[in-house]
Specification:
Number of domains of chain B: 1
Strand content of chain B: 35-45%
Radius of gyration of chain A: 29 Å
Shape of chain A: elongated
CATH class of chain B: Mainly Beta
Distance between the termini of chain A: 78 Å
Structural class of chain A: alpha/beta
CATH superfamily of chain B: Ferrous iron transport protein A (FeoA)
CATH topology of chain B: SH3 type barrels
Structural class of chain B: alpha+beta
Number of helices of chain A: 32
Strand order of the largest sheet of chain A: 2-3-4-1-5-6-8
Order of helices and strands of chain B: EHEEEHE
CATH class of the domain at 2-169 in chain A: Alpha Beta
Number of strands of chain B: 5
Number of helices of chain B: 2
CATH architecture of the domain at 2-169 in chain A: 3-Layer(aba) Sandwich
Largest sheet of chain A: 7 strands, mixed
Helix content of chain B: 10-25%
Distance between the termini of chain B: 17 Å
Number of strands of chain A: 10
Oligomer: heterodimer
Strand order of the largest sheet of chain B: 4-3-2-1-5
Largest sheet of chain B: 5 strands, antiparallel
Largest interface: A-B, 50 and 42 residues
Shape of chain B: globular
Chain lengths: 670, 75
Amino acid sequence: MTATIALLGQPNSGKSTLFNALTGLRQHVGNWPGKTVEKKEGSFTHNGNTYNVADLPGSYSMSANSDEEVITRDFIASGKADVVCILADSSQLERSLFMLADYAGISAPCFLVLNMEDVAREQGKFIDAEAIEKKLGIPVMMFSATDTKAYDKFYATLKRALRERSQINVSALESEYEKIGGYNEIKEQLSDNSVPGYTPMWLTVKYLENDTVVSAKLKNELPKDKMRKIESLSVNSEGAVATGECKFAWIDEILDGAVNGRKEKTSLGKLDRIFTHRIWGKPAVVLTVILGLLASFIPALPVMGIGSLIDMLKNVAAEGLISAGCPDFIRGLICDVIIQSMSYVVKMLGFVFGVTLVFGMLEEVGIMARISYVFDNTMGKLGLQGKSVMPFLVSFGCTMGGAAGARVIDNWGQKVLTIALAWAVPCGAAWSIIPMLSTVFFGAAAPIVIVAILLVMLLHMWITAKIFSRGLVKTEDRYGMIMELPPYHKPKWGSLMRYVLGRTKDTFFRVTKVVLLVCVIFWLLSYAGSSDGNSILYNIGIAIEPVTKFFGLPWQLFLAFIASSVGKEGAVGVISALYTGGSYSAAFSDAMSGGGVAANLNEILLANVSRPEALAFIFAITFNLPCVVALAATYQEIHSVKWTAKIALYYTVTALLLACAAYHIGLLIW
Amino acid sequence: MKLGELKENSEAVVSGISGDARFVGRITSIGLTPGCHISIVKNDKNRPVLLYSRDTMIAVNRKECEGIEVTEVRA
C-alpha cells in the first residue's frame, strides 16, 4: 500500500521535527510548480507500506495572506493527500488549535497530533485526548516528536486515520458562525460542489473574511444570479475578527473539561531578559551567532580539508596527463575545470554544513525568534525581517554561507533581497586582500581605506535595498512582525543532523552544476592554446582598455577584476602573472586555486600601478560579485535564474562604478 | 487606548481590531481576538511590544499595535 500524508501546523508546532524524523535522508527540497515557494517532500516505509510525506508551507492559518497559504490550501483541496496530519502545541493548546478551527470544513480527512506532550506535562497541564477526540470526531493523539519511542503510537494513529478517513465534526462551530450577520444568506447560495474540496461552511467563512482567492473562485463557479445575491450583502472589511471570535469560542468549548492544570507564569526567563534587553540584546544575539558559527567550523574543517586535497590532486593529475601525452585542451578541461570546480564545491559544503547546522539549531531551540525581535526595527527599515541580520553576519566570513543561511527567511522576496544585500558585505577572501593591498599602496593610511570600505558597504546596502525592494517586497508584505516567541526547546540532535546532511547533499548536486557551467565559460574565455594572444578574454581586455582606463583599470587590472568574479583570492595571482609577463592563461587557472603570487609582489605592484588605480582596484574587487560558488549558492536558495543573473549583473556594474568614483577621487588627492 | 500605549506589566483586554483583511487575519490567527486577556511583558522604545496571551509570548511590531484597541484592567 502507498499513501500520501500532508503535515499541517503553525510555526513552532514541531512540524519540521516530525517531518525530519519520519523521512530522514529520504527527503527532497524543490519548488512548487510555477511558484517561488519551497516544496519539501519525503517518504518512509513502515510495516511494508510506503508513505509519501508532504511538509506543507504556510504560517498561522488557512487564509490567502501569502503564496504559501494558498499553495497549502490548493494541495489539500486537490485530494492529493490521503490524510492530513494537523499539529498543535500541547503547551499552548488554545492558541495553536486555531489552525484546526480554520481547517474545519475542508473535505480532506484529517487527524490531530497534540505535540510537545512533555512540555505541557512539565507545566503541570493535563490533557484528555480522548475527550477531545469524542468532540472532534477525528483521531487525536498526544505526542512528543522529540521522543523516538513515541513513533509507534504515531504510526498506529496514522493507520487508524487512513482507515477511518474521518472529517472534523463542525456542528458546534457552525452554530457559532450562524450568529454572524449574512452567514446564512451567503451559505444558502452555495452547494456541496460549488468549489470541489471545500464545504459551503468553509467557503462562506472565507468569503466573510474577505478572502480574495475564494471570492474569485466563487465568481467563476457560481451562476450569476447567486453571485449577485452574495455580493448584495455588505461584508465588513474586518470580517475575520468575527469569525476569529467564533473559532476561539469553539476551541474553548472543545477544550472545556479536557484540559486542566496550572496557568503558565508570564515573566521572562533569565536568558530572555538578556536577549530582549534594550541595550545588551543586540550584542548578546550577535555574540551567540558568532560563537555558534565558530563552533560549527570544528566539524566543517575536515570537509574543507578534503576540498584542499582535491586541489592538490589537480597538480598530480595534470602531471600524469602531460606525461601520458594528453592534449593540452583536454588536460585543461579535466584539471582546471572539473577538478577545480569539485574543489570549490567541496570546500563550500563545509560552510553550508556549518551554517545549516547552527541556524537550524538556533531555530529549533527558539533563539531565532529572539533575533527577529531585537532586529525587527533595524531590518524593517531595509524592508527585511529581523532574521535577515544573520546572513549578513555570516557573509563577513563567507557569502555562500550567508546565501545558504538565508533559507531561514520565509518570505521569498525578502529572502532574495537579503541575499542581494549580503553580497555587499566583504567576505573573508576580500578581507585577506584589502589590508594587504592597502598597506602596500597607502602605508599608514590603510585603516582609512578599510573604514571607507565599511562605510561604502553600508551605503551600498541601503541603496541596493531601495533599488531591489520595489520589485521584490510587495507593499502588502511590508508588515511588521507579529510572531510568537516560543519557549526554549532542547534540540533534537539526530533529527537535526539528518536534516543538515540532507540539505548539504541537496546543495551539493545543485551547486555543482552551476559551478561547472560558470567555470567552463571562464576557462574557455581565458583558454589561449599555444600563445597568449589567442585568448578571447585577453583580446577583449586589450580592445576595451580605453574604456576601462576611465574606470581606473588598465587591462591587467581589469582582467584581474574579471578573475575575481570566480574567486577573490585569485585576483592577486592574476596581477602577479600579468605584470611579470608570465603566461597569463596558466596564471588565470593557477590563481583560481589561490596560488601563484609572485614573491616580490609589493615591488611589482608599486612599479606598475598608480595609487588612484590601486584604490579603484580595491573597490572594484571588494564590491564585485563574491565568487562563483556564492553565485551558485544564491541560485540554489532562490531558485530563480532571472534574479540570480540580475543580482550578478548589478554587482558587476556597481563595482565598476565604485571603482570609477574611487579612481577619480584618488586623482584629486594624488 | 492602543496596545502600544500600555505600560510594562499592565494587564488588559483586547476590545477591538481594525485594519485591512490581511492584517486582521494575521492578528486573529495568532490568537488576539476581542475579549482576550493580555499582559504586557515588555514595551521598549524601537522594539516590538512583547505580550503574553493564551499561554503564548507574542511580539507585535509597534506600527501594527495601532490597529489593536485595548482596555486596561486593574489587577
